[in-house]
């Protein structure tokens, strides 16, 4: 199989660097072989003959696209936020329980304070009087 020229290899390597840097000129920038040969301006057959370049491409491109990396980053961030939300909800529940305990203790101390002063909280209730039969007839 014939080797490629040094100039063609240089074009392929320059194209690879542009793609990896996210600075594509002729393609959409995805890290796929089709974009590599199009970015370099060579045929697919010529690219396939550049075995050293293709080996380097395989080492440097792990099969994931830039968008895939961005999606993974977002998923990771989302998982972190979900864990943070879970912790915050647990904290809110704990604080609500503490608030209930504190409110109950304050209410009990208030009643106890009234009893110590001689105030009977049950005397604060005023019974409702039923209207007499004459006032209902109007």
From TrEMBL:
<feature type="coiled-coil region">
    <location>
        <begin position="71"/>
        <end position="105"/>
    </location>
</feature>
<keyword id="KW-0175">Coiled coil</keyword>
<protein>
    <recommendedName>
        <fullName>Replication region DNA-binding N-term</fullName>
    </recommendedName>
</protein>
<feature type="region of interest" description="Disordered">
    <location>
        <begin position="117"/>
        <end position="138"/>
    </location>
</feature>
